Amino acid sequence: MLTLTGIDAFYGNVQILRGMALEAQRGEILCLLGRNGAGKTTTLKTIMGLVRAQSGIVMLDGQDVTTLPAHEIPKRGIGYVPQGRRLFAEMTVAENLEIGLMTRQKGKDVRERMLDLFPVLRDRLKQVSGTLSGGEQQMLAMARALCLEPAVLLLDEPTEGLQPSMIALIRDVVTELRGGNTAIILVEQRVDAVLSIADRVLFIENGTPREMVDAATLRADPALVQKYVGIG
Amino acid sequence: MNLLDYLPFDLPHPALLAAGMLEGTVLAAVLALTALGLSIVFGIMRVVNVAHGEFYMLGAVLAWFITHTVSGIIGGPPWLGFALALIIAPLIVAALAAATDWLVLKRLNYDPEATIVATIGILYIIQQLALTFYGPDARPVEAPFDFRVQLPWFGYSGYKLCVVGAAILLMLIVWLILARTKIGLIMRATQYDRETAQAFGIPVDKVYAGVFALGAGLAAIGAVLIVPIQQAHYLMGGDPLLLSFIVVILGGLGSLKGTLVAAIFIGLSDGIISTLYEPTLAKILATLLVAMVLVFRPQGLFGARAA
After folding, report:
1. Whole-prediction pTM value?
2. Mean local confidence (pLDDT), B50-62
3. Looking at CA atoms only, how far is residue A179 from chain B in angstroms?
4. Contact predicate B158/B145, CB 8 Å
5. Count of the separate structural domains present in chain A
6. Is residue A106 a part of any domain in this protein?
7. Which residue, A30, A203, B130, B137, has fewest beta-carbon neighbours within 10 Å?
């Protein structure tokens, strides 16, 4: 589905990714775990073409998308929920959704489905999105990405700073999407937030993939978690 | 003893005041269009376009070439030449601006400082090209129609009033495009967050080229409208550039509403002060006002505080 092979990426002169590699499958949640600065966000940005891979290949459905212009990549069916949500905060909820719909020329039916999925948004269509609560903003960020009807969904810390009920809701949506045959890559720092929904976990350290583990294995033996994301 | 006797100057005659206000309104209308172009470019691209006044000048000079060709060489009526100039000159200027964006600004990665220096260079290139091919003379363009509107004190040029109407109409169109259309939505998304816009399929390179073209085109339209009133000259870009910057700073960079209000204010005060006293005094006061605003309200009257 989506594969990364041997990706090197830099911010200026600083190398962030060193031989990054992963493979995401349809109907599966792949979770990237690692400490701050391990390169999780950069991996997602490289997939989106927002950070350019200096070497390595990003393949989507057998096609090389590594060198596509950044704005072409979402059109191939990759939806992105960035860290910190990055809504167009001065625009209304409706306008944010409209931008998502425009990406792949989706129509009213997709919009309706999003509003059914997140009913709160329906009541707030005319509201400026920056004035929504944190949880509502996260829902809008997800709805905006899902407006692409993506084959691959990239989620960067979607539960950051949210209250437990919101986290549960987002977890439900993500689980539902997996059933809908979407490949999901989830970046998280908090292990407890992912272990219950992830299928596989990829541990990242210093921009390099270290170990790929089935979530079931990890649930039985949390020692690895300590090794890669534990403190001290 | 009347209190008014203590004023250090004589109060103007109402007719003179009315004339000043009318002249000011015409200036305000053209200024608002030109400043709107500058404001959109800065607001969306974060590029301070020092060459903006030269796009204005180029619009006027092209208008002269087009009207001169139509009426002087082909022998068409003045309105035909002017109508063609109003369409063709802004399009040529917009195309040139898009090319400038692609050849220069894009290659500088829209770095704020580099683009200032680059647009200073572009200012001189355009100015010297105009001097070379158009010459140092100021040349008039005939107004497309000539009727006078009779006011209580004096008759006033109907054309000037139409300029005001045209400017208002154009600004309304720009506002509608920005606020109500998909293109406007794309432009606002690019303005707000360039990276996220790309992640939703918005080709920001093309948006930037289009915005730069639109900004220059607005300046050129302003110039075509003004050229039957002022003559076309290769150095005419200086004043509109200065006034546009004043307007944009007063109103708040990137705020359309602020640009509009400030343009009306500066245009009116410039017109009234120029007519009644001295054009130089008008510029001094306007520049002083900008200095005061920068000291006490750096984000401009309507600008949002920097996040």
Report:
1. 0.88
2. 97
3. 24
4. yes
5. 2
6. yes
7. B137
